[in-house]
Amino acid sequence: MEIGNLLRGSPDGIDVRGPGVLCSFDVFGVTINLTETVVISWGIILVVALLLNWITKDMKTKDISKKQVVAEWIVSTVYGLVDDTMGKHWHNFAPYIGALFTFSITGSLVSMLGLRSVTADFNAPLTWALVTFVLIHGTNIKTHGIGGYLKGYIDPVPVMLPINILSELATPVSMSLRHFGNVVSGMVITSLLYFALSAVTKSIGVAFMTIGIPAVASLYFDLFSGFMQAFVFIMLTMAYISNADGRNEE
Amino acid sequence: MNLDFLTIDVGTILFTLINTLIIFLVFKFLLFKRVDAILEQRKQEVNATYKKADDALASANSDKEKYASAMASAKEEASQIISRAEKNAQRQGEEILTQARQEALAVREKASFETEREKVQAREELQGEISDLAVELAQKIMEKEINKADHQRLIDEFLDEMTSEGEQA
User: Chain B: which residues have CB within 8 Å of chain A?
Assistant: First the structure.
């Protein structure tokens, strides 16, 4: 009976749903939903802001505190990463990369607090991918001029035009779907694991199975995967944008 | 109520865009600007410290050179003074010696001159006395009628007188 449940799903259901909608209102005929994702993001912003404000408080030039060491390490690491990947003239881009990485990784890691991952909502990585998309094309137009930008689509031969357009459109789609897919698959697998283990527990009658194994799984799916996807996302963003920047070619 | 598992929701995209902008501003103004400011301040302090150290080193070096040259000139001066003093001493010694020699020579010359003069004087006196005695003798011979024996005795007396006077002179 329990094994049968495992195979075809529980009567309680394996609960894999989209983000909950807290309230929704119409603006000019468009339904705007205030979802779980957005509210959790606000919580993340608040915590991150308080944390950053705390570690950068009372900074000194000598006899520095441990939190200042951490703050300086974060800043210099992000600057180093951006300078190495994108070149010195993208130095001021570092705060966005730091913010994106932090938002992405904390958005994935909130699942460890029992909340729904922000990045398990396709709209979040899609938004970031769209920002990256706009930055790619903005940079391209800025450095090559509108003519050079358009000429890039028929390069090296005009037949390549549809392929080039597709490849440009594929960039944000692949970026956002990769991030979303990894996080959400982790979420689904974790749910399945919980369900299967509780089924085993029910059949054995001892509750030890649900204690150790999910923690190990969570270590991989939440911590490692969350870190990995955030890193991949910022690396791709930097690579695409600096690739669109003609100044890096010489 | 939940959204579908995979759905594109305009509201969530708008909110996430705003949230991303906010978290970007939070990073920029609460972390990067502040840390940049403190790093810049530290850089300036370090530069100022280095400059101060360089200045101190330069002034120390110039002082050292000044002292070294002062020491060298002092040594030179000292050796000049010493050599001058030596020369002076030598010269003075020589002068004194020469003077002493000259004086000694003068004294000796004077002494021999005196002796000579006294000798001449004595001789003159002696001759005067001899002539006086001769005159006296002649008078005596004239005054007295004498025999040969007296004559002999007179001459002997005279000779004795002469001899004793010559010895006295």
Answer: 1-17, 19-20, 22-24, 26-28, 30-32, 34-36, 38-39, 41-42, 45
A100 contacts on B by Cβ (under 8 Å): 20, 24
> Is A28 within a domain?
no
Nearest CA to CA, how far is B52 from chain A (Å)? 18
Is position A199 within any domain?
Answer: yes
Q: How many domains does chain A have?
A: 1
The helix-helix angle for A225-244 and A66-86 (nearest 10°) equals 50
A55, A61, A180: best to mutate for the B interface, most B CBs within 10 A: A61
* Range B40-43, long-range pairs (CB < 8 A, 24+ positions): B41/A61, B42/A61, B42/A62
Structure tokens at B161: 């007188």
Nearest-CB residue to B10 (from A21, A30, A49):
A30
Cβ <8 Å between B24 and A19: no
Comparing alpha-carbon positions, the chain B residue that sits nearest to A95 is: B28
Of B1, B10, B30, the CB nearest to A56: B30
Q: Which of B23, B30, B36 sits opposite A53 (nearest CB)?
A: B30
* ipTM of the complex as predicted: 0.85
CA dihedral A233, A238, A241, A247 (to 10 degrees): -170
pLDDT digits (tens, 9 = 90+) for A47-77: 999 999 998 888 888 888 888 889 899 999 9
Instruction: Please report which confidence band the pLDDT of residue A13 belongs to, taking 50, 70 and 90 as the band edges.
Output: low
The amino acid occupying position A136 is I
pTM above 0.80, yes or no: no
Each domain of chain B, given as residue ranges in start order, spans 10-168
CA dihedral over B63, B64, B65, B66, signed as positive or negative? positive
Structure tokens at A217: 């799984």
pLDDT tens-digit series, residues A186-200: 888 888 887 777 777
Cβ–Cβ below 8 Å for A59 and B38: yes
CA-closest candidate to residue B19, choices A49, A27, A228, A235? A49
**Residue range(s) defining the domain that contains residue A135:** 36-248
CA separation for the pair B158, B154 (Å, rounded): 6
Residue A16 CA, chain-centre distance (Å), reads: 19
Task: Specify if A173 maps to a domain.
Answer: yes
